[in-house]
C-alpha cells in the first residue's frame, strides 16, 4: 500500500562562458502555476466538496463496484459459479486465487486504499477550512468518516489483517489485527452517525437535495453490520433499531425495482453506488489517475450477462434455482424473486433483451438448459451489454437487509418469537405464506436455519451470501461444509484460511513493517 506524493521540480541552469551566477536552492523549487497542489487546493467549501466527491469516485472504478468487487463477493458462495476463461476470475469461487497474480482481488485492495487516502485528505484538511455554512462542513466530514469506514469494512472483511492508515503522512503503515480493523470501522461509522443527516432533501447548501450521498441511516446500517459481524448482537440490534424506527425507509412493492435503472434511490435504498450513462465520457474507469474521458458506468452487467448478450463470467447455481421453488406463494405461484434473479427457459416463455429465451437459444441445447443472471441486467431496455456501459446503480445496502439482520440479532438474543414479525415483512412483499402459521414455535437453532434460507433467496447475487456463510462458521463445521460442497461443487476446493483473499504480494514485499500473508496461501 504505497501512497505517492509526486513533486516535479524543473530546474534550468544556464552556463555562460563569461560569468557564473550563484543560484539559491529555494530559487530552484518553483511551483508550476498550471498544477494544483495540496497546499493551494484546500481553501474553501467548494474545494472541500470536490474533495469528498473524489472520495466517492473510488467506488466507481474497476477494483470496486464497476466490476471487481461484486464478483469477488459473489463467486465464493453457493448461489454463484463461474466458467470464465480468465483464470483469475475462474479461481475466485474455487478458493484458488494466486498470490503471484493479484488480478481482480489486488485491484480491489489497491482501490479501497485509494478511497481511504482520499478520505484521509478530507479529514486532515477540511477542519482547517473556515466555512460560512458549518452544517455543510459537518456533512462533508461525516461523509468522509462513512466512506473511510466503508473502505475499511471491505478491507477487513475480505483481507483480514490489514494496515489502517488514519493520516496522509506516511508511505507505509503496520499491519493491524482484524479486531483492530473492526474497531476502526465502528469508530468511523459512529463519527458518521453523529455528523450526517437522515436525508439531503430540503437542505440548503451546495449538497442540498443530493441523491446517493451517505446518510445517518447508512452509517447506522453499517455500524450495525460491523457489530453483527463481530457477534455483538445487542449493539447491532440497537443500531438497526435506529434505522427501523427512523421512518425513512420502506420496502418497495415490486422486488425487481431494486435492480433497475428506472427505480434507483427508492425508499428501500439505504446506500447505493451511483452509475449513469449520461455523465462523463464513454471510457471505463479501469484504475489509476482519473481521466476526463471516463464515464460513470458499470461493467457488472456485461460481466454477468447471459451468453450472447455479454461475457457470462458469473452464473447462478442450480441449487439457487431449485430453492426458489421449494415454497409457493399463497396463490400457489413460484416465488417471484426467481424471475427477477435468474434468466432461464421458463414454461410460458421469458423475454430477455427483446428476445424470447427459448427461441434465442434453440440452436444451443446447453445454453437452452442453463441458467443465467438477470438481476442487475438491462434486459428490459437494451439489446445486449456489449458496450460495457450499464447505468444501473449498485445497491450496497437495502432496508430488507436491515430487517433480516435485525431478525438475526433478536434470535441470537433469545427473542426468537419476535423474529417472525421482521422476517414476514420481507416475505409479504413476495406473497409468501405467514411463517408463524406454516412453521410456528421454531427453536433458536431452527430459526437460524430459516434466516439462512430467507437471506439466501432475498439477496441472491448481491454479494451477501458468502459473508453469511463465513461469519456463521459453516466453513469450520464439517457437516455444513459438506452440505455446501454438495450445493456448489466449487466449494469442494475450499482450503482453511482461504475464506479471505491473499494480501497482494507487492504489499508484503514492499512494506517494511513485516506484513504477514494470510493463512492458507
Q: Name the shape in a single word.
A: globular
Helix content: 40-55%
Quaternary structure? single chain
Distance between the termini: 19 Å
Number of helices: 22
Strand content bin: 5-15%
**What is the CATH class of the largest domain?**
Mainly Alpha
Q: Please indicate the count of domains.
A: 2
In CATH, the topology of the largest domain is named Serine Threonine Protein Phosphatase 5, Tetratricopeptide repeat
Number of strands: 10
Structural class: mainly alpha
Largest sheet: 2 strands, antiparallel
On the 0-100 scale, what is the average pLDDT? 93
Q: Which stretches are low in confidence, meaning pLDDT under 50 for 5 or more residues running?
A: 2-23
Q: How many whole angstroms does the radius of gyration measure?
A: 25 Å
Strand order, sheet with most strands: 1-5
* CATH architecture label of the largest domain: Alpha Horseshoe
Amino acid at each position: 500500500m504505497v501512497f505517492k506524493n509526486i513533486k516535479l521540480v524543473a530546474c534550468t541552469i544556464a552556463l555562460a562562458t563569461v560569468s557564473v551566477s550563484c543560484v539559491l536552492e529555494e530559487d530552484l523549487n518553483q511551483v508550476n502555476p498550471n498544477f494544483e497542489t495540496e497546499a493551494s487546493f484546500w481553501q474553501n467549501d467548494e474545494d472541500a466538496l470536490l474533495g469528498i466527491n473524489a472520495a466517492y469516485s473510488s467506488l466507481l472504478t474497476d477494483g470496486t463496484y464497476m466490476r471487481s468487487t461484486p464478483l469477488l463477493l459473489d463467486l465464493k458462495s453457493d448461489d454463484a459459479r463461474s466458467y470464465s476463461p480468465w483464470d483469475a476470475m475462474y479461481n475466485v469461487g474455487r478458493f484458488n486465487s494466486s498470490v503471484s497474480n493479484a488480478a481482480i482481488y489486488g485491484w480491489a485492495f489497491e482501490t479501497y486504499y485509494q478511497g481511504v487516502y482520499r478520505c484521509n485528505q478530507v479529514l486532515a484538511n477540511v477542519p482547517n477550512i473556515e466555512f460560512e455554512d458549518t452544517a455543510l462542513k459537518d456533512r462533508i466530514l461525516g461523509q468522509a468518516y462513512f466512506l473511510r469506514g466503508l473502505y475499511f469494512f471491505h478491507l477487513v472483511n475480505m483481507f483480514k489483517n490489514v494496515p489502517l492508515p488514519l493520516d496522509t503522512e506516511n508511505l507505509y503503515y503496520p499491519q493491524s489485527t482484524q479486531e483492530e480493523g473492526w474497531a476502526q470501522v465502528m469508530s468511523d461509522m459512529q463519527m458518521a452517525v453523529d455528523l450526517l443527516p437522515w436525508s439531503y432533501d430540503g437542505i440548503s447548501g451546495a449538497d442540498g437535495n443530493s441523491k446517493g450521498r451517505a446518510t445517518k441511516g447508512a452509517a447506522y446500517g453499517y455500524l450495525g453490520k460491523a457489530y453483527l459481524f463481530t457477534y455483538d448482537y445487542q449493539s447491532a440490534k440497537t443500531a438497526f433499531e435506529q434505522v427501523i424506527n427512523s421512518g425513512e425507509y420502506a420496502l418497495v412493492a415490486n422486488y425487481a425495482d431494486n435492480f433497475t435503472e428506472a427505480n434507483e434511490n427508492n425508499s428501500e435504498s439505504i446506500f447505493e453506488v451511483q452509475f449513469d450513462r449520461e455523465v462523463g465520457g464513454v471510457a471505463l474507469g479501469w484504475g489509476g489517475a482519473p481521466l476526463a474521458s471516463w464515464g460513470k458506468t458499470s461493467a457488472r452487467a456485461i460481466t454477468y450477462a447471459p451468453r450472447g448478450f455479454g461475457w457470462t463470467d458469473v452464473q447462478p447455481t442450480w441449487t439457487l434455482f431449485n430453492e426458489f421453488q421449494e415454497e409457493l406463494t399463497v396463490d400457489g405461484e413460484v416465488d417471484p424473486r426467481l424471475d427477477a434473479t435468474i434468466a432461464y427457459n421458463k414454461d410460458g416463455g421469458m423475454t430477455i433483451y427483446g428476445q424470447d429465451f427459448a427461441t434465442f437459444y434453440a440452436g444451443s441445447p446447453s445454453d437452452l438448459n442453463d441458467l443465467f443472471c438477470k438481476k442487475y441486467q438491462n434486459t428490459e431496455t437494451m439489446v445486449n451489454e456489449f458496450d460495457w456501459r450499464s447505468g444501473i446503480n449498485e445497491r450496497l445496502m437495502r432496508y430488507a437487509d436491515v430487517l433480516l439482520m435485525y431478525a438475526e440479532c433478536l434470535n441470537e438474543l433469545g427473542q426468537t418469537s419476535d423474529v417472525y414479525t421482521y422476517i414476514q415483512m420481507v416475505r409479504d412483499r413476495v406473497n409468501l405464506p405467514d411463517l408463524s402459521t406454516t412453521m410456528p414455535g421454531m427453536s433458536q437453532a431452527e430459526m437460524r436455519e430459516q434466516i439462512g434460507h430467507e437471506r439466501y433467496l432475498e439477496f441472491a447475487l448481491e454479494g451477501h451470501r458468502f459473508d453469511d456463510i463465513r461469519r456463521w462458521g459453516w466453513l469450520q463445521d464439517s457437516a455444513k461444509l459438506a452440505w455446501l460442497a454438495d450445493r456448489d461443487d466449487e466449494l469442494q476446493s475450499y482450503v482453511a484460511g482461504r475464506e479471505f483473499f491473499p494480501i497482494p504480494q507487492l504489499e508484503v514485499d514492499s512494506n517494511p513493517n513485516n506484513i504477514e500473508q494470510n493463512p492458507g496461501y
